[in-house]
Amino acid sequence: MANTAIKVNDLVVKRGRRRVLHNFTCSIPAGSVTGLLGPSGSGKTTLMRAIVGVQIVESGEIQVLGRPAGHKDLRSQIGYLTQAPSVYADLTVRENARYFAALYGLGAKVADAAVRDVGLSDAAGQLVANLSGGQRSRASLACAIVSQPRVLVLDEPTVGQDPVLRDELWKRFRDFADQGTTILVSSHVMDEANRCDRLLLIREGRLIADDPPAAVKASAGTDDLDQAFLNLILAGQEAAS
Amino acid sequence: MTLVHTTGRILRQLRHDRRTVALLILVPSLLLTLLYYMFSGPVFDRVALIMLGIFPFLIMFLITSIAMLRERTTGTLERLLTTPLRKTDLLFGYGIAFGVAAAVQAAIVSGVAYWLLGLDTRGSAGFVILIAAANAVLGVALGLLASAFARTEFQAVQFMPVVALPQILLCGLFVAREDMAGWLQAISDVLPLTYSVEALQEVGAHADPTGTMWRDLAIVGGAVILALIAAAGTLRRRTP
User: Minimal Cα–Cα distance from B82 to chain A, Å?
Assistant: First the structure.
């Protein structure tokens, strides 16, 4: 396998009294687009938070670009898009992007390019509070990609986007990956899964598949990813009982 | 550098919120006018002078604890903590930005107090504004610290009566500190607002800045630094 960008080993995370991740192990190759798929509440966000180093973990270890997750040196190399848009509603799109760019020591030009990349040039001067939900999450995405990070962790970046834009965003992710960025992207939408190099299927805090989309489909004996997911879950339950 | 950008970002947010800016400027002046019609002559001079210190403290405490809580609940704080931004840059950014806003507020309210309402102090208005601004920064610092213990807006506003009110009750406005019971005086001694009120009273009573005034200002400054460091300590990059 190619260079590994993210390595998760035997990770256990509890939120409240509930165990969200059970001895989770996976590795994510550098320069690839890896899709993290699973139902709501399966632990996708928790895994992403652990990788960017904002989640308190119970045990296990995570290496990102050869350093422990949350290491100081990683802060300039990771871009994180939270599920709910985390931008300042009382600033314009441009002001948001420029502020986040400035945190990495980058100038206004880079920030404006990021706004253009997410297709918000026309709305750049608008307050985020006045944008639609889809525009808001793209404003948030602009702030995540602004530093051209080596690792991009994107929590449901395409929710609420129209199909044309979704297509453009995925092309953009592919461009980033071609330039060497490692992308971990979570999604509910199975047709997006087909555009990933690799899929991590996760359910109730456990990894149930870690393969390229074609291999996932082959091992589940179906061409439909939704069905493949279901088959794998059923197969897992049979094995357990 | 990130400190400068963070300060600028917070001021820009404030600028987009015109109603808040209008409230910041108008409310203290209106309240002071109310005092003007309630009291006259020396009583007004005494109460209004102290109020010039208390308004910025109170208002900035509230604004800051809500602003910081918003950073938490909207996820921007979590995102900021994944960037190279230093925690102290964020907190001092708030301190400076709201301190600047408060200085403008204090200058305007003092202008109203001196020129329109005929406030009379022996010392200069410049020192009154300086102490009022220091008080505002104290409010910011305590607000940042208090917001660490609030999970919701409901909790955050309730820290106002918990943190700010006792300081106002015991600062010497209602009962002169010398006339308080010993244990009340002891509590008053450790509350920072006590010293800024004393500093204001020094400006009211003496034409030139006194040693006591400078000492009091230094104490307030020390309290600000302590509160900001404590706030940085409660700001965790990793959360459950």
Answer: 6
